[in-house]
Specification:
The protein is an alpha/beta fold. It folds into 2 domains: 5-93 and 179-213, 3-Layer(aba) Sandwich (D-Maltodextrin-Binding Protein, domain 2); 95-177, D-Maltodextrin-Binding Protein, domain 2, CATH 3.40.190.10. It contains 8 helices and 11 strands. It has helices at residues 15-24, 58-63, 74-80, 119-128, 144-147, 162-166, 186-191, 193-213; strands at residues 5-10, 40-43, 48-53, 69-73, 85-89, 95-101, 113-116, 134-137, 153-158, 170-178, 180-184. A 6-stranded mixed β-sheet has the order 2-3-1-4-11-5. The longest helix is centred in the last third of the chain and has 21 residues, at 193-213. The protein binds adenosine-5'-triphosphate (ATP) and 1-O-pyrophosphono-5-O-phosphono-alpha-D-ribofuranose. Residues 12-14, 54-56, 73, 75-76, 93, 95, 140, 157, 159, 178, 180 line the site of adenosine-5'-triphosphate. 1-O-pyrophosphono-5-O-phosphono-alpha-D-ribofuranose is lined by residues 140-143, 156-163. Belongs to the ATP phosphoribosyltransferase family. Short subfamily.
């Protein structure tokens, strides 16, 4: 039986913390893992394959079954609503999604605009608040939007808060606290349950130990 497990890893800021966690849980990650432009890294002796994906795409690979497991921010899960199971809160890459804007301003009463990289999350949030807004999708530098008059508010990730402060913006509401999650393809979870359960147990132990030390 094919016992290979494919794991989709997010490139970028989650990567280092995720790799550290996997190593502590006993994953045999080769040194090239940390400093390579390769997008597929095989560890045949342990029957693992790692694919390196854009963070926002990890759940897509897992949903389609080309990756069995993946590591994705909760923000990605909320935005993408992919049909996958969330197995574990890895408690890494903590940040939160917030509504922000220029200080002491109200949203425009007629057709208020909200700029964001998270159009579904933002639309759902303002719908829930009973506010009709126009969502403007941006791909980065979201904080620019209120500064330059493109939007009344933004919905974006806040981590240290430095980007907001340095651009003279303030937070109005926290929408959701975010950490990275271990996710699994629905079929893989059934077919490869033994290996996956073992991984979840090892990772849970490391997360627990980290929590006790903190
Ligand atoms: N300060 C932060 N800003 C953005 N994402 C953060 C932050 N801190 C933790 N994260 C987590 O990291 C993930 C995004 O990682 P990263 O910024 O590397 O990817 P990206 O948004 O695709 O970046 P880029 O488009 O700039 O390459 C988010 O899904 C979120 O869960
Ligand atoms: O609270 P802070 O620690 O300042 O972090 C928050 C900032 O980091 C992210 O941007 P990123 O660096 O990914 O750049 P981009 O989305 O503008 O490309 C996020 O979109 C915020 O702008």
């Amino acid at each position: 039986m094919n016992n290979l497990l494919t794991i989709a890893m997010p490139k970028g800021r989650i990567f280092t913390e995720a790799a550290e966690l996997l190593r502590k849980a006993g994953f045999p990650l080769p040194p090239e893992f940390d400093d390579s432009r390769k997008l597929i890294i095989d560890v045949p002796e342990a029957q693992f394959r790692f694919i390196l994906a854009k963070p926002m795409d990890v759940a897509t690979y897992v949903e389609h079954g080309v990756a069995d497991l993946g590591i994705a921010g909760k923000d990605v899960m909320l935005e993408e609503e992919r049909d996958v199971y969330e197995l574990l809160d890895l408690k890494i890459s903590a940040c939160y999604l917030a509504v922000a804007g220029l200080p002491n301003t109200k949203m425009n009463e007629v057709a208020p605009k909200v700029a964001t990289k998270y159009p579904h999350v933002a639309a759902a949030y303002f719908r829930q608040q009973g506010e009709q807004v126009e969502i403007i999708k941006l791909n980065g530098s979201i904080e620019l939007a209120p500064l330059i008059g493109l939007a009344d508010r933004i919905v974006d990730i806040v981590s240290t808060g430095r980007t907001l402060v340095e651009n003279g913006l303030v937070e109005y509401e926290v929408i959701e606290h975010i950490t990275s999650r271990l996710i699994v393809n629905r079929v893989s979870y059934r077919v490869k349950d033994e290996r996956i359960t073992e991984i979840v147990e090892k990772l849970s132990e490391v997360i627990k130990q980290k929590g006790e030390l903190a």
